[in-house]
Amino acid sequence: MADRIPLVDYLVLEPEPHLIAHECTSCGARFFDRRNACASCFGMKFRDVAVATTGELRAFTIVSLAAPGIPVPFVAGVIDCDGTSVRGNVINTDPDPDHVHLGMKVRLATQVVGTDSAGTEAIGFGFEPVGK
Ligand SMILES: [Zn+2]
Asked: Which end of the chain is more exposed for a tag (fewer CB within 10 A), N or C?
């Protein structure tokens, strides 16, 4: 089996795919990028926490123009994962308003976004509708 490398460092593939956030130990704010200080309370201590893999679509945009090589249309969304706001694409569904709507239940899903010459797969994530 080919090696699999997460596309972003907050995506963990094993044992089950999930996202890791840095949580401020003072106020509980969560961030996916590395920070030296919390944007909410300026606390400087963080711990890694696993983010819920299911959530609700809170906002989305159907993107029909993108850089060359990026298939369009796709759905860029913001998902509320049990209180943690996550940016991600809605995948594994038709990218149109008949299939994507605010408040829909989604779950984390991974997809191969590229393969290098050695066969190593880059794994990205998105959110797919629950109950497909
Ligand atoms: Zn804080």
From this structure: N
User: Beta strands 18-24 and 30-31: pairing type?
Assistant: antiparallel
pLDDT tens, residue by residue, 3-26: 999 999 999 999 999 999 999 999
Predicted local distance difference test score (pLDDT) of residue 86: 97
Residues of the chain scoring pLDDT < 50: none
Contact 90, 58 (CB under 8 A): no
CB atoms within 10 A of CB 63: 14
State in Å: Cα 81 to ligand 1 middle.
19
Q: What is the Å distance from ligand 1's center to 38 Cα?
A: 5
Phi and psi at residue 121, to the nearest 5° = -95, 135
User: Measured in angstroms, how far is the CA atom of residue 53 from the centroid of ligand 1?
Assistant: 23
